[in-house]
Amino acid sequence: MLKQMMIVAVLGVAGCGGQPDRLAFTPAASTLQLQPLVRSAMVRSVSLPSYAAADEISVQAAGGLISADRSVLWADDPQRALTLAIATTLGSITNADVGPEPWPFIGLPDVAIDIRVTQMIAAADGTFQLAGQYFVGGDGIDFRNTAHRFDIRQPMADQSLGSISAAQSAAILTLTEDIARRIAR
């Protein structure tokens, strides 16, 4: 009987702890339409700093300290969500066959796009900052291999979750449109 009461007590305590809320990353739509130089492109899994790859939504304080509120999490793995959003948007802009890594089609893509983010944060200065470097590589014959740096700062109305999410979406769209211009005429 005591054992049953302990199990019920443990289950009761476990049931009291609510699950954190989740915030979906909603990609911003592009109106850009470009003619691609390639028929296909693969977006490798986006490389993120550890704080940006975590489920928690990170915010930078005035002293530079990065903290996260564990009561609200991203609805999807940030690396996966960004990779899929960039691939989908690139495909919409260029009308090329664009897919995430691993490459979902038979044969190899004309180019691979490798994005390495060094900074992705709701900064203390009121901007959402997205910085890093991306590489567009082909086989070296049909498409010249190139490397490009990016430093995007998107203003936020405040540091509310809605402002952070909207600014992040706008920054990712800016990056995606820049990449699209590199693989288009």
Describe the structure.
This protein is α/β, with parallel strands linked by helices and 185 residues long. Helix content is 31%, strand content 31%. Strand 7 and strand 8 form a beta hairpin. The longest helix is centred in the last third of the chain and has 22 residues, at 161-182.
Task: Describe this structure in a few short sentences.
By secondary structure, the protein is α/β, with parallel strands linked by helices. The chain is built from 4 helices and 8 strands; from the N terminus they run αββαββαββββα. Helices cover 31% and strands 31% of the residues.
Largest sheet: 5 strands, mixed
Structural class assignment? alpha/beta
Side-by-side strand order of the widest sheet? 5-2-6-7-8
Count of helical stretches? 4
How would you summarize the topology of this molecule?
Blueprint lengths: L1 H15 L4 E3 L16 E4 L6 H4 L2 E5 L5 E9 L3 H17 L2 E4 L10 E12 L4 E11 L8 E10 L5 H22 L3
Parallel strand pairs: 1-4, 2-5, 2-6
Antiparallel strand pairs: 3-4, 6-7, 7-8
Helix pairs in contact: 3-4
